[in-house]
Amino acid sequence: MSTKEQYIKTMKYVIKSEVATKIIKNFSWMVSDKIFTMIVGVVVTAIVARYFGPESFGKFNYALAFVSLFTAISTLGLETLTVKSIVDKKYSEGVILCTSLFLRVIGGTILTILTYLSIRLIAPNDDDLHILVLLMSLTMVMKSFEVIEYWIQAYQKAKISSIIRIGVYVITALLKVFLVFIKGSLVQYAVIYTLDAAIISGALMVAYFKVREEITPWKFSFRYAKYILSQSWYLILSGLMVTLYMRIDQVMLGAMMPTKTEVGVYSAAVRIAEMWYFVPMAIITSFRPVIMNNKNISEDKYLQSIQLLYTIVAWLGIGFGIAILIFSKPIVLLLYGADYLKAASILSVSVWAGTFAMLGSARSIWLISEGLQSYTLLYTFVGLIVNIALNYLMIPIYGGFGAALATLVAQFSANIIALALFKKTRISSIMILKSFSPKSIFQYKERVAKRITNA
Question: Taken in order 388, 390, 391, 396, is the CA torsion positive or negative?
């Protein structure tokens, strides 16, 4: 069979497959959304970074990283569990969403207060930093209404959130450019950041009540709240630790270095390194309900779909990583200018840490499906300890480059080594390592070809 004939048969198979078509359609909307926001975001961030300079840009990102440590707790670990609850239909949709919203509003409010009090204790004399942190902390309450995203993921209706986010992103991007034009302040920039979350949350709520198909009354359920929190406590802690070892580098850079300039340069590098995240995250989000459904249908299909997800994420990371290694300096100079040139070496390391981070996100679906969520706490704890220890040793010597190396080692330790030490989770580490082998791609092609032959 020629390559052309095989391609045609493969396309026919995909078109006939309702599940595959749904994944592709949902993925297309999410990717369209993220490609647009990525392009606009990178350009606007570059304009803003050039305007404020490494020191002020570093101060903003230090405040953002500090708030992120608390934001991780405010989600209450509900993301994947709520999607699973909607798919399983053990509780009504209205009960699930209303209870999740109520819990997140309470958590967000408490954490906003704690965040503000904490920064006043850590940096008592920096009033500008206090205001920045307070404004950004308010997003924890506003983003509570993004529980609608859980419903969107469960029913693979990415078109709704994509249209909303693109529209809001255009508005806030224009506001940021206008801020530079009028020579605005960091506080005004933080207001725009908060406004973005407020508009998106409101629009998602309006969209849900207009397009929902299953009309069930919204009511709070103590029973469901007790159930979901009993399942999510380790996800809350692991989410905090994930954020810690993803953001602690910026917090430690800001605290250990004499100025915030190093944070600004490091943040510029990380911003570029994270550009490709939207692709694997869109794929992971689209695969999540499919993998969970396959678990109930066929163990073989279930494992194949997980291995396929790992393989796609791994090779996307390899492709992007190689491109960054080749073009890191020209990219940094083009976007941020000579003041940020030091970010090129940091970028060359940070991009590989992202590959293991994305594989960790993909693996979380397997842990949830297997009922092994408690191990999430273990591997993130390993990553956190490794990252803090290496940051403490490397930042005073190598600055931002040392922080990037620490994050890379921490990601590998957390997502590969930690779970390989335990019998119940070892298979996951083996599957992730297998995904880096070109053989895994050819094996999947052989399975598709076999299905085509039998179709």
Answer: positive
